[in-house]
Amino acid sequence: MSKCKLNIADNKKRTKKYETYKSNRWFGKSKCLFNAFYLRMKKYYPKVRIDLSDMMHYKVHYGYEMHRVFNLPHTEFCINQPLKKVIEFLFFKKIYERKQAPNSLRAFEKKYFWPLLYFKGFYQSERFFADIKDEVRESFTFDKNKANSRNLNMLEILDKDENAVSLHIRRGDYLQPKHWATTGSVCQLPYYQNAIAEMSRRVASPSYYIFSDDIAWVKENLPLQNAVYIDWNTDEDSWQDMMLMSHCKHHIICNSTFSWWGAWLNPNMDKTVIVPSRWFQHSEAPDIYPTGWIKVPVS
Asked: Residue 126 and residue 130: Cα distance in Å, rounded?
């Protein structure tokens, strides 16, 4: 996982506050979570800023892409990382998500006496922005003018397909030793078999749209009767996979925030979202799924 920071000013009508919200995760994968949290924090701290200093040299997943993909305001800033750490240590009161009571947002809404605040966490839960869902979906609207013609044609197909199911299978980096033990080993073949069986019980004649970085593995291990393999969105076009996912009617996601957002951005109230019973192999993430998403066993 990764982290980001939120700089906040003006605690409602009180003394001006300068706060920082820290997150270490970026587009698709998690960047949306922090920008969604930022939108909510604006209600309490109108001059909130996002500190991207920790990712000045971050090149994984094409770095920070939120402005290229969505029409979001430019609220980020970067400063020299060593200097930032000194300033943070000397002047800021830090509020850590991991130290707060479960299911409580009080620490992120209360008024603080100290004017310099720095929020740190992953905020990997809908509860951090559940009260502004419509605003988040509006802000996270994909710019179709930036989509290529093949994806625009696929959007038309998806919008007409009442049984369209997105199926996201992430392998690639998840097979690397540094990710395998905690996350990569969770969603393996048994999970996808269980998820497909559950979807078949809930959706008549589902048509699957497969999103994966290992299409060959999918074809070899998951023989699906009615499947379309989306294999053309690579590199800087990868965000268009999430756009296509969000236009499917139902979803099977893996333990990846990329497909989490693909499913969440689908506004269909009657959607079926199948998710793995656990997100991490050796730790719990009880708040990661919105209410109504259906857990199936991973083994």
From this structure: 5
- Residue numbers in the chain where pLDDT is lower than 50: 1-4, 7-30, 61-62
Q: Which two tokens stand for residue 134?
A: 């419509």
Can you spell out the DSSP letters for 32-48? Answer: HHHHHHHHHHTTT-TT-
Rounded CA-CA distance 133/264 in Å is 10
The confidence score (pLDDT) of residue 59 equals: 53
Q: CB 16: neighbour CB atoms within 10 A?
A: 12
What is the pLDDT at residue 64? 55
Residue 115, burial from CB neighbour count under 10 angstroms (0-12, 13-18, 19+): middle
pLDDT of residue 8: 42
CA distances from 55 to 13, 25, 122, 229 (A): 32, 9, 15, 33
Token readout for 253 is 């996601």
- Residue 3's pLDDT is 45
Query: Are 74 and 68 within 8 A, CB to CB?
Result: no
